[in-house]
Amino acid sequence: MKGEMDKIVSLAEEESTAELQKYLSSLTNDQFASLFVGSPPVSSEGANRRLLVYEHLIPLCESGDLQTEVAADIIGLLMLETHTLPGSSLAKLANIFVDAIRVGKMGSGKSLELFPTILTALAACEALSYGKGELSGEEYKKQLINSLCSSRWDPQCVIHLTTMFRDVPMSSEELQFLVEKVLRMFSKLDLQEIPPLVYQLLLLSAKVSEKWRVRNFLNSFFALLQTPLLIIQILVLRNLHLEVQTIPQDQLRHVEGTVILHIVFAIRMDHELGREFLKSFKFVFLQTSYGNLCPFSVALLLSFARIQRYEEQVFDLLKGAVIRSFKDEQLQQGSKFLQDVLPGHCSVAKMILDAVKNSVFGWDHVTQGLVQLGFVLMDTFGPKPGPFGKSTEGPVSAARTPQQQACKLGGQMLLQGFKIHEPIRGEILEQVLNRLVTKTASPVTHYLDLFSDLVTSAPMILLESSSKVTETFDHLTYLPLATVQGLLKAVQPLLKVSMSLKDSLILVLRKAMFSSQLDGRKSAVTGFLLLLKNFKVLGSLSSSQCSQAISSSQVQVDVHSRYNSAANEAFCLEILSSLRRCLGQQADVRLMLYEGFYDVLRRNSQLASSIMQTLLSQVRRYYEPEQDLLPPIKLEPCITAHGDQVFLQEPLAHLVSCTVHCLMWLQNAQRAANLNADDSDEEEEEEGYRAELQAMLESMTRRMIKCELEDFELDKSAEFSLGSSVGVKNNIYAVLVMGLYEVLMEYNFIKANYNKSRFEELLELFNKHHKLSEILKEKSGKGRAPSHKTPRSLLSMGFVSTLITVLFRDNSQSREEALSVLRSSGEFVRYALCVAVQKIQQLEESGHTDGPDGQHSDKTFRFLCDMTSVLMWRYTNIPAAVEEAGRKEKRCSLSQLCLEGLLRIFTTCQQRYPERMAQLLSTMEDEAEQDDAAEMNYFYIRQFQRALFTQLSGGEEEFNSREAQLLVSILTVLSRQLKPTSKQFTQMITWTVKICKETSFEDSAFCKGLLSLLFSLQVLYKSQTGLLLELCQDIHSQLGDIDQDVEVEKQSHFSIINMKTATTLLVLSQVDRVLDEVDWLITRKKTQTASDKPASAEASQAAAQQDPVEKAVTLQLGTLLTALNELVQTALLPGNCTITLLRELSRTYTILTTLVKYYIQMCASQHGYLPNRFEKLVKLSGSHLTPQCYSFITYAQVPSPSDRFGDDKKKKKRNEVNTAASAKLLRETKAIPNLIFSIEQYEKYLITLSKKSKVNLMQYMKLSTSRDFRINAATLDAALQEQEEPEETQESQETEEAQEPKQKKRKQ
């Protein structure tokens, strides 16, 4: 043993350590143990020898020259002997470790296992020399840890060090310091090292308080990972300047996925951590900026939701964040004031969609949460059922409200998830189909859209789950008709590639045809018609109209092959035979059939013979073949009676309309096709039914012209009351006959080919129609409750578009003579315009119109373009003087009808075709050759501006209020197309302000529309508080003061404000909007302040003075208080205006209270400092507004003085009734108590703020009025005088004092 020791000592004294290391590595553990035994620690020589062994063995183990097992055994032996070392030796060893870590010599981390043992032994020492003094072992350990955390770490040893520190006993402060150091090292690590480091850090931070651990560790980590590009860029700089594209994205995503797994595992093990984690996220979501959110954090939350106890909380959190984000975005986009104050908005929706996109990189633990969140959003924010189960939200092309956007986001999540994650496809499909079947009481349009997108994106994948679709078919009979239509349209691509699916659907539809429920039979007709449209037979005419409504590039199937076409033909003929049974069912079922036949024929022209034969046989039932008999149709079979009730059995006009349109389409198509002589047999057959139908229609036209209303028993003496069966029958007859006249008008117009005599016949048909229409209007108007609604016209939209075009814009000489026949009839021209407006209105409300091509979106848009051009030309080119004769009649002029049509077209286009508005405008005029869409839009805006200016220039007697309102509405719609930053928008708002300043017409409806336009422009241009102040001053000036002795200074910023047009309610609605914006800003500032760290007094004061949000809020409220101060002194009429003003005042004080609470919160961090602006605001509210509020409350509670000055007893009684009703309304709404409570709450928190800030804010507040018991001395004196001297009552009424008792008596 002594020889070995001497050998080691001699080798240690040499300069080179290589020989020593070689010799030591040859020794065994037993020899090392004996070495320690031979070096007793009690002697200084033994202690030094032990230290020497430690100093040389530690680098040896770290070098990697030893086998792993040998190194582990040596470290284990050293750990056992560490407690025997003296304090000075321990200190030296600790410093060796610290120095080695600093210079990066601890790459393998094998010897780091010894470091915790050394630090623990060091902490147990009583005193150690440190510099010139001494430190306790614990203090020395703190200094070492502080020195270590302050020094530079080699990135390779970060994980080893973090693992090592788990075994070091440390205080909470030391742990926090260490964790912060590790967090700072994240950006310097390789991506692959981040997951294990996160895991070690979670284990290490288990010793820290939960709140600090979550708030600091997780938030800091998110801040690093929310910008993966930052990490990539850091890696690029360290990896020999590699390009960003060479860093694989999948590697980064896999790292994030592994980190998520580690964090969720830690939460499963420690539920206290989970609770703090949720609190942290709630705190982040409360901040309206969502600054710490990123796709990674969303994915982490969704993984977190897999833990059942947190599932509901997580989805509530995400759901609230989504809807709040959309609302904030909408608020900012709709206000220039908010856009100027705050930067761009951070979209939560984009983060969620990015999380879905990133989940393709093996994030299987996220997918279940994605599915659940998608359905939660769609279930919560989908369309809600309105009255009678109808949807409250009409189908529009773009999601507009926050709820619609949230629902759309849910659909996008599910669609993307379906595309990229195979395991969840079955669940998504099953849940969608389940909702279609079960949610019969509420609209399911959003689920139908999603299902359609799923089919279109992956039809072959859906075939794997065809059994689920087949199960859904079994419920078709019980589903609402709209759901059935949407579902069957969506599955069309699947039916073309799956025979089993098609067969099961046909079986279900056949059963539904005999259903006891009417909706079930209508569903069967819908399904059969859709099949006929989409299973094309070989040889059908190819035309642009024959395109498939639903197509999918993924469905590769040859439906035009010889085998398929034969099968399709047999299949379609079989369906047609089933549909013929419908001709004996209720009118609703027949109507669906007639409306669907045209589209079937257009897409499947080989079925023409069967369809036309079916229609012909049906028409024969009601056609009178005897040419001399009138009328040519039999109306009795068209109705049926059940007890005392009469019902429509056959919609005859729709039947003839369908027949006419099918016939005309076939003639045009076959004329264009020029069929070969080989098909002579088929052609002869077609010629047969065509000739017979044409003869029928010609005879019907001739005889209907000869018919008088008496022939239909519908003359003026007939009863049309809906209260009796005879009246109902006559109403049904009248509608059928009017519809028939319309169908024949359209047929004869097309057949006439601009022949004068045929147009004269058409006009005679119209005269009969008009006469019956007038009788129907007259009779229905006599009842107490006129329930008559103009029946929907059977003219097709394409025909109406052609008709008004030729009436107004056809200048060809060859047609002049014939068209003059139609143009000469003013009633016919008016009728054409009225039907055009009716069709546009139907398109606006439902998205489609009746008749051929009504469901074809592109064609209806083309018709809209044609109509827009004609209506615009008619309005701008025909002077109003031409229509002076018609102005005496109590109906709107043709120009007004044109304007109404244009307004509806622009509104429809903005809702249904928002991206095609420029295309619509470009087709309006040949003159408008504008390349820029904004310039073209403004070109038409200027035309309507000129028209309105002409209206306003003519004087009040010639002013047409309705036309002016329509012009303002059109300007409002078109102005939405302008960008707020464009010069056209600036010109538009300048013009609107000028009109408001110069117009003084006493027309309240026009004034309201014009001011609404002004407000809608102003809010996108700049803050509107200045505008509100001027309007409030004008209203005060016009209506007078609540104190009759006060003479209000005459101000007139806007001439449009006068006694009749003082639209206080409209102004107050804008006040409410301003308060919304201010409230949102204050809430945002409060959450930001809560998350900010306290700053020094000087820094806080400087920040408060310069804070743009606080400044903007104070200025907005200051101007608003001044405006309300004007209104609260105004002698408003009792009723809604007064109550609304009281409510807005109450809300204003509530928001002032919120602002005061914010400054109370700020006082803690800003050492009691208040900005000067805020003090001025408090002064304004206390010295000006509050006293006037109390005066207004007194004014509102006392009856109006004008009620006492009426000699007319009826007027006096009416005023008393109105006053009583207003007083009752005031009591029921509790507006006054709410306002008083808001004022007192405001003053209460002002007192608190005064104490906190050491600023006396209450000096501006005046003592509030006592409201519980009031004695008016003047009133009391007058009452006593009235009792003592009744003969002097008349004289006393002339004085101010005597008016009060009069009021009190009336109030009693």
UniProtKB/TrEMBL annotation:
GO biological-process terms attached to the record: DNA repair
What Pfam families does this protein's entry cite? FANCI_HD1, FANCI_HD2, FANCI_S1, FANCI_S1-cap, FANCI_S2, FANCI_S3, FANCI_S4
Q: Where is the composition biased (Acidic residues)?
A: 1282-1298
* Domain of life of the organism encoding this protein: Eukaryota
Indicate the segments forming the FANCI solenoid 1 cap domain, all copies: 5-35
Pinpoint the FANCI solenoid domain residues. Answer: 48-267, 366-529, 794-1014, 1028-1277
Give start and end of each FANCI helical domain. Answer: 272-358, 543-777
What is the protein's given name?
Answer: FA complementation group I
Task: Return the CDD domains for the record.
Answer: FANCI (cd11720)
Query: Which species?
Result: Cyprinodon variegatus
Residues covered by region (Disordered) = 1278-1308
Question: What Gene Ontology terms describe what this protein does at the molecular function level?
Answer: DNA polymerase binding
